[in-house]
Amino acid sequence: MNTIEPVVSSPRKPPEENGASQQRAADWENPRVASILSAAAKCFARKGFTATTLAEIGKELGLRKSIVHYYFASKAALIHEVQSFTYHRYLDRLKEATQNGDGSTSQAMEALKALWEAIQNNKTGTGLNIEVWSAARRDPELKRRAAGLQRDARQVIREAMGPAAAKGGVNRSEALATLSLAVLNGLSVTEYLEGDEMRAREAYETFLQLLRLGLESSSAPS
Amino acid sequence: MNTIEPVVSSPRKPPEENGASQQRAADWENPRVASILSAAAKCFARKGFTATTLAEIGKELGLRKSIVHYYFASKAALIHEVQSFTYHRYLDRLKEATQNGDGSTSQAMEALKALWEAIQNNKTGTGLNIEVWSAARRDPELKRRAAGLQRDARQVIREAMGPAAAKGGVNRSEALATLSLAVLNGLSVTEYLEGDEMRAREAYETFLQLLRLGLESSSAPS
Asked: In chain A, N or C terminus with fewer CB closer than 10 Å?
């Protein structure tokens, strides 16, 4: 089974406003685009962003650099697309689980647990996130896009937490979603630095227990 | 008021075993060492690791490169020391608050809140963390040291959480400490990417509420 497939169910959003430095919008359902993203993810994970060239990514697939360049105007554009592709793969699954669920807190916990498992199965994802965060320090456009991905992720997580999270008001459900995403990011870093999957998993399960307690407590702070 | 001062109260630990590539152990109480670390932190935050040279760090202080090199054998060694210096500054404060406290959950929450404020006051710290995580991908020694810092931080946090965390057993207090550190790291990333201090702060306060609920719930999972 191929681990990177275009499972994007919704059409791409149009490029955002203010798109002076925007590349062509990548079409993830185009098999060639998907194969370039997959090869790029491998190269980035292996060597980091700095040491990877568009030519090498092409070489992985037997494609000329000019073909890669046709789809992605720059390495920065490709970096963003790889991260965005990976994020949306997870988020689409989470969305699907939410839509098919009963809106209960238990089901929300199951969905968030499944999200963790999905992230765990992609060991290159954390390295990619860290590379993006680092590159964003020197590339405002990349930073803006990475921030956009965080917002997309939070929205899906907020919906996944269901009516229980909304009970405490918009601010509280927003804070819980921000917290949940930060826990996912932070524990990925823990696991990446220490290589201790069990530690990260136990901490995540503890978080879900706390989150459940919080969602079930009727005394939601205003 | 100088923002970076050597406030290290305990003597440096001796260099760890397996020190083939170890540099001289930096003495944080030496004013020159402290000034180099402070200048390095500024340069790294401004330009990133890659673009910063030992010569430039020396120039900030009117020192020759050879002097910087006398104290720090390499840029990687300096990077680690800067991060370590910053971490231990926070951790020593947290330790102090814990030792002077009454061991109550309220006091633990106050200490964890103070830790957040201290981190917030050092805007270059997150950038530095991200640079270290990124550089650790290509430098196993740096990764090992960054993992060591995470362990040190967890231990101090576990102690700060006091007897309430220990009630659920070693595994639970360890999981809570791992989670707390991940929340600090994850929310730093949120704030760094989105520049939204209020969002990160509200999520952290929500975390402390959940943590308190968890610590106070008698039904601590085994």
From this structure: N
Sign of the C-alpha dihedral computed for residues B50, B53, B58 and B62 taken in this order:
negative
Averaged pLDDT of chain B: 82
The answer on B101 and B46 residing in a single domain is: no
Answer yes or no: do B205 and A175 touch at CB < 8 A.
yes
Which of A39, A73, A107 corresponds to the end of one domain?
Answer: A73
Residues of A in contact with B209 (CB under 8 A): 214, 221
Residue with more model confidence, B169 or A198: A198
Residues B32 and B85 in one domain: no
The answer to whether the Cβ–Cβ distance between B150 and A193 falls below 8 Å is yes
Q: Is the pLDDT of residue B143 over 50?
A: yes
Reported confidence tier of residue A185, pLDDT bands at 50, 70, 90:
very high
Is residue A59 domain-shared with residue A90, that is, in the same domain? Answer: no
Whether residues B128 and B48 share a domain: the answer is: no
Question: Chain B residue closest to A182 (CA)?
Answer: B186
Question: Residue A65's pLDDT is what?
Answer: 92
Each residue's pLDDT tens digit, A51-84: 889 999 999 999 999 999 999 888 888 888 888 8
In angstroms, rounded to a whole number, what is the distance separating the alpha carbons of residues A100 and B71?
60
A168 to A217, B198, B207, B209: CA distances (angstroms) = 10, 18, 14, 13
B191/B100 same-domain check: yes
Q: Is the dihedral of CA A154, A160, A162, A164 positive or negative?
A: negative
| Interacting residues of B129 by C-beta distance below 8 A, sequence separation 6+ | B83, B185, B188
pLDDT of amino acid A109: 92
The CATH number linked to B46 is: 1.10.10.60
Q: Which residues of B touch A136 (CB under 8 A)?
A: 193
Please answer whether residues B111 and B159 qualify as being in contact, where contact means their C-beta atoms are separated by less than 8 angstroms.
no
